[in-house]
Amino acid sequence: MNRPTPLDVAISAPNEAAADAGEQVARAGGNAVDAAIAAGLVTMVNEVGIVSLSSGGFLTVQPAAGGPPQTVDGWMDMPGRGRPLGGGTWDVDTAYGGGVTVTVGPGSVAAHGSVAAMQEAHDRWGRVPWPELVAPAAAVARRGFRLSSASRYYLEHVHDSIFGWDPVSHAAIHDADGEITTDPIVLPDLAEALDLVAAEGAAALHTGELARRISGDVLARGGILASEDLAAYRPVVRPSLVAEVGDWTFGTNPPPAVGGVCVAAMMRLMDGRPAAPLPDGRWSEADVAHLVAVQRAVLGHRLAVLDHTDDLAADAAALLDLVDAGGLGALESGSTAHVSATDSDGGACSLTVSSGYSSGMVADGTGIWLNNCLGEQELNARGLHGLPPGTRLLSNMAPTVGRRRDGATLAVGSPGADRITTAIVQAVAGFVNGDLGLAAAVNHPRVHVHRAGRTDEVVKVETEPSMYFGGVGATLRRPDGHLVAAADPRRDGAVRLVHP
């Protein structure tokens, strides 16, 4: 087989092993899409409690050949075809993320789709064979891994309440004294599960042996995820939602996700702020005040309208029309992993994936921690099983790509539940409007309006780096082909600049 000519590739990933995977695939001839997928698959192994193979996600791609950006939707579907809904869940209160109540157990498991979306993106834009993208993740699963700081931080809050009720889950992350382990974790059966994904593609998780084991175990324990739900799942490719900012055209996640709508609205409302040059590299008080007003308006509109609508696409379009017509004045009245990659051909890929807060169970014979995306209460305004089977759930995710008129390309995104959108917008605004370097824009202190527009609204200002405010990963190809990568110091981010 003739190998494609290697490209220069920039990668920003949540951890060193994920970045290594992206580099390995790039050196084998992979492009930005290939590198992002390989890195993303590793996070499904070693970012415990954040993401797993039982996950949903989105990839936004700027094709190297030009043309408009595209988003591949691999987010969760509501399961329960042909069976009564309800049961198999309980609530857990945790101080994580500023305090949240989550629903866990087998009844909280939704129909996954992230690997199916990855394969769809690979089939359209990838350059190297699919098994080579999966191989680094299988290798990490075989040799074992230590918990990342993000995983450990989350597990400190929930290692007993969520991850302690299932025997396999409990054994994997606890030592003999019941404390969170510091030893390498090797999950029984996970490497073999990844071997099946390498050989069969996403079908292994939807119609193959892994799908049968996952659905069988969920149903046996009182959940509603059946084999019919997994077999019926399909990723969807959509034109990205576009926002024009200066000389940049950004593409982000369109409805039925809500995160990209918020990013697009906030980008349009930033109105050239922060003003460049920035004194001492810091936003002015006036620019920060404008940012808070923008967040309050957009996030408040989301909480009041978008989270409850019967037609998100129509209401999202109405919001953006309102923003374009009247500006800011017209509006005033969970856990994820992210990878960004760009390449010397001008391609960019932004990938965000999540398993929610985790159901706490490992599906029998698979080594796969199952998601709890039906139990993310802040994303399920209609209740635990309130949507018809087959319906896409709501998502905060907003993987974003950009192309400037001079040919520069950017990939950017973040984990961080409801802080995803505000983290991305602040990094992009600092880079595009404030003329900060990419790393300086990512590193800059942030603010976040929590529970915008409610009586318990809190404006949270970052005084020292905190993973609460997200974990932006960004990569850039300059017009001359020079590559730049930045990983958020708030998490264990890692970057690679690959020049084969």
TrEMBL record:
Coiled coil: none
Keyword annotations of the record: Hydrolase, Transferase, Zymogen
SUPFAM superfamilies in the cross-refs: N-terminal nucleophile aminohydrolases (Ntn hydrolases)
Pfam families for this protein: G_glu_transpept
Gene3D superfamilies: 3.60.20.40
GO molecular function: hydrolase activity; transferase activity
Superkingdom classification of source: Bacteria
Family per similarity comment: Belongs to the gamma-glutamyltransferase family.
Protein name stated in the entry: Gamma-glutamyltransferase
Originating species: Aeromicrobium marinum DSM 15272
